[in-house]
Design goal:
The chain has 262 residues and is an alpha/beta fold. Helix content is 39%, strand content 18%. It has one domain: Alpha-Beta Barrel (TIM Barrel), CATH 3.20.20.70. The strands form 2 sheets. Strands 1-2-3-6-7-8-9-10 form an 8-stranded parallel barrel, surrounded by 4 helices. Strands 4-5 form a two-stranded antiparallel ribbon. The longest helix is centred in the middle third of the chain and has 18 residues. The chain is globular.
């Protein structure tokens, strides 16, 4: 496949996407992903693509057939105890993506992080490899690191999103800026010349708040979502995924999307 064909596995005919990251197993202790193959099979009707680690890509090839497969190329480690905070470090690249038939690769890009220089170099090296392999790169662009909502301001997110695009990302995944309006987020999306998708972060336990955030992002011009824990840690994973799909692909209102959970 060429680059555009690979991208089309994620970005549907409306230019939007619903991606389910299930790559958390190397980063944090997780519940809800005990059966990744069963999870994929259950959510395939309402999910366009998945972010997976190499092991799941190898084990779940049949279940992933026909879906966009994005190989996680790094390990994003939050600080733990006295461990050195490296933020993210790269493990794989375009060669492994081609081996498992992935249609994209994903790597972190932490701006203002103590290991920013290393992370930028690794992201740039991945993008360089992808040019020869025709594999799109999704950079997960976050100021300072993962799980830092106080740092996810309009200014910080705006800079980080644009930096990812400038490095050569095909798609930028980022957090919705804390407390931002749809109009405020639009300024970030419009200043980025590649599609922007938003992540879900830790499980909110509030369906209306999640769907409202996604609706605000879509109204601002975002190309979709990459929401993981708020789906597979939800009491009704298939139903919340259907609700998210309705907002992204059908422009459903929050009230209408909530009916999917009935």
């Amino acid at each position: 496949m060429d680059r555009d064909q690979n991208l089309s596995r994620f970005l549907q005919s409306d230019g939007r996407t619903v991606i389910l990251p299930i790559d958390h197993g190397t980063a944090i202790p997780v519940t809800g992903m005990e059966d990744p193959i069963g999870l994929i099979e259950a959510l395939n009707p309402v999910v366009d693509g998945y972010v997976v680690n190499l092991g799941v890509a190898l084990a779940a090839g049949d279940a992933l057939e026909g879906k966009g497969v994005c190989l996680r190329t790094d390990c994003y480690k939050p600080r733990y105890g006295d461990n050195l905070d490296e933020g993210s470090y790269r493990l794989y690249g375009a060669e492994e993506a081609l081996t498992v038939g992935a249609h994209a690769v994903m790597n972190m890009l932490y701006t203002h992080h103590s290991n920013e220089a290393g992370i930028f170099r690794e992201a740039a090296e991945l993008i360089s490899e992808s040019l020869d392999a025709d594999i799109p790169v999704i950079l997960e662009a976050l100021p300072f690191g993962i799980g830092r909502p106080a740092d996810y301001t309009l200014e910080n997110i705006g800079y980080t999103v644009r930096a990812a695009a400038e490095l050569g990302a095909d798609i930028v995944k980022t957090a919705y800026p804390t407390g931002a309006s749809s109009d405020e987020f639009r300024t970030i999306v419009e200043a980025c010349f590649v599609p922007v998708i938003i992540l879900g972060g830790s499980a909110l336990g509030d369906d209306e708040a999640l769907l409202t955030m996604v609706k605000n992002a879509i109204d601002a011009g975002a190309a979709g979502i990459a929401v993981g824990r708020n789906v597979w840690q939800h009491p009704k994973p298939a139903k919340i995924a259907a609700a998210l799909h309705a907002v992204v692909h059908d422009d459903a209102s929050v009230a209408s999307a909530l009916k999917c959970l009935a």
